[in-house]
Description:
Layout lengths: L3 H25 L15 E2 L7 E2 L5 E9 L5 E9 L6 E2 L6 H4 L3 E5 L5 E9 L2 E10 L2 E4 L5 H10 L18 E7 L19 E9 L9 E10 L5 E2 L5 H5 L2 E2 L7
Antiparallel strand pairs: 1-3, 2-3, 3-4, 4-5, 6-7, 7-8, 8-9, 10-11, 11-12, 12-13, 12-14
Amino acid sequence: MDSKLERKARMSGGWLRRTGWLLSALLLLGLAPAGAAGPGPEFKLRTDVDDIFTSPDRQIRVEQYGADKGDEGFLFQFWTFDSTRQHASLLNPGEGIDLAGYRAGFRFSADSQWLVRSQKTGAGFQDLFLYRRNGFEFASATPKPLSEMAWDYFWALPATKRLHRNRKDREALGHVFAALVQGMDDNYASLGLDWPDSRYVVISLSFDAQGEDKPRPYIEDWHCVYDLKTGAFSVPAAFARHNAEAFMPPRPKRK
Length: 255
């Protein structure tokens, strides 16, 4: 007669074989187990060189996956993976084509702990999103898009009164564009600034008066700074002259 130990071994082996078959079947059907996160089969990897981004410490890679939605256009998902591809993390869960209908640009902080996404949302329109690292994953670092917070800060400044606009009616603005000013990877030393490592993000804001019946002033490349440590916005004295020149007079209406 078989010993109890032999019977248990056969039972365990049978369970393992059945479990292995089940996992194989799930993979063949395109169904991933709960712990195996990653883009679904509908989303295809964009392999252009400028579609893939790697952190300065070489541990994290951002990849972009697009799904063709027919007449609606494309929907993009932005995933981060560690160097062994064991930790997949989706940066933009729940976003639709209105927010993720185009490929994005990404920039890491010098210490690889922060990530900024520059997201086109239409012709001449762009938003910014900020993510913070936790282990091998990145998650949203702000309660709403970083660009929306920057616009809130801008419209609260007394200087914006000269634009003669209803600060609450932002939908009326043309080509609302928020951009990341180049220099995040070297702490903006290229701008002649001596700042702490990976402490600040410099943002550029623009909109225009295109299509307005009575053109009014607008702004072009106005700069502000977001402090990653305190979560506060400011305008350093070094930007004063640049920002004064960012307020543009009305353009004559085309006949």
